[in-house]
Amino acid sequence: MQADLLHTQVDAYLADLRSVGSDVPSKNGRALCVQWMNDQWLYRETGADGEEQYSLTSYALEALLLVAGLSRDRALISESRLTTIVDTVRHRATQANPDREERIHRLDREIAQKTSERDGLIAGGEVAAASNDQMHEGYANLIDLINQLPSDFKRVEESVAGMHRQIVNDFRAEERPLGEVLDEYLTKTDALMSSTPEGRAFEGAFTLLRNDALIQELKNDLETILLHPFALELSAQERRSFMGTVSLIRKGIDDVLTQRNGLTMTLREHIVNHDVVKDRELERLLREINRELATWMQTAGPRSAVTAELMPGTLDVEHLRERFYDPAAHAAPPALEDVSDEAPQPASLDDMRQQGGPLLEELRQAILSAFAAEGVISVGDAFNSLEAHLRRPVEILGMLQLATQIDAVHRSETLETFETVRPDGSRHSFAVPRIMLNTNETAALAALNSGPDDD
């Protein structure tokens, strides 16, 4: 979360607590966040956008996990948890036992058990599906393990950051030859992840999780678990959180790798740009300032002050040239090429009208003429008897506009087919409400103005 946003939120929470009479610290939000950062509950860093932001430390994540576990109703001892312990102990015991015969015996027993189960299924045996209670126990056990991942990854990230600070501080304090310093700290950088318990644990997990097939299998297994009927009792947030396990693992790995890459880049830039002579000059200057300060304090009073200019003054310059004259920027553009001979023939007025909107006046006159003839009982019949240039698909919209203006559409209860002809000669049929015109509506259509130029 951005630093300014968190400071504002903490101030708002403090005001709410004071309004109900709670005893709260007298500090503001910023001071409290700094205190929490010093107490290692928060970690402040500069984000990718250049703004300061806070994140929870591994201690804070573990504390929240502990509180959530204590406030959640669950069975501490379950079949799923005991099965996980037994399976893990069996697997580690197999790896720890150097006896070849004993390991072969264990493997043969597992193979026989799996083979018996497989043969039973092939023979048509019943598939023993887990009950909802069993799935709930297993789900709770998995959630406990998954919830521990963020704090584990954060602990590795903090370990890398701590190693980063330690290496940079040690590097700045060195007074040995530069070549010797480079050799030692490049060696420390290469062995960074193997020099701490967290780093060694992460390296083992990272080697396992680099297997894309294993990650895909994990994702498929998570989907399979949520297909069980017990998942219907979970909330949408719980299902999304459970399916986000793979993303959680990948994000944790990316954060650690980003921190490690940042350490490598910082060390490289520091080693390349490090100037021992300038550092010693700065250190000598600071020692001289301390000596002068001690001399001044012998005679200065408790409220004495020294006016010191921390930053140099700015130059009073009205304008600085940003760009210099470039003759190419003032050159005339090249002459346009004459391509008038390649221009197509301009479209005629009739062609452009055929590509435009409905011909309302001509359509109105044509429909009136069709109704005046015998055998026409609906607007659709009148439309289908018109000439091709008045039967475009867009003329249907014009016809509906005219019918709406004389209030003749609301009585339509059925559909009829309008056969249209596009300007390219292709035909298409449309189902349009069947509109019948009585004598009054026909007279209203005859008297209708279709444009501002009509009288």
Describe the 3D structure.
Helix 1 crosses helix 2, helix 3 runs antiparallel to helix 7 (149-173) and helix 7 (149-173) runs parallel beside helix 12 (245-273). The chain has helices spanning 3-19, 29-38, 58-71, 79-96, 100-122, 132-147, 149-173, 178-190, 197-209, 212-226, 236-243, 245-273, 276-297, 349-354, 360-372, 379-384, 393-405, 439-446; strands at residues 42-46, 52-56, 415-421, 427-433. The strands form 2 sheets. The chain has a two-stranded antiparallel ribbon. Strand 3 and strand 4 (427-433) form a beta hairpin. The protein contains 18 helices and 4 strands. The protein is extended. It is mainly α and 455 residues long.
Give the helix level as a range of percent: 55-70%
Secondary-structure class? mainly alpha
| Major sheet: arrangement of strands | 1-2
| Tally of helical runs | 18
Write the topology of this structure:
Elements: H1 3-19, H2 29-38, E1 42-46, E2 52-56, H3 58-71, H4 79-96, H5 100-122, H6 132-147, H7 149-173, H8 178-190, H9 197-209, H10 212-226, H11 236-243, H12 245-273, H13 276-297, H14 349-354, H15 360-372, H16 379-384, H17 393-405, E3 415-421, E4 427-433, H18 439-446
Helix pairs in contact: 1-2, 3-7, 7-12
Quick recap of the structure?
The protein is mainly alpha-helical. It is built from 18 helices and four strands.
Structure keywords:
two-stranded antiparallel ribbon, mainly alpha, two-stranded antiparallel sheet
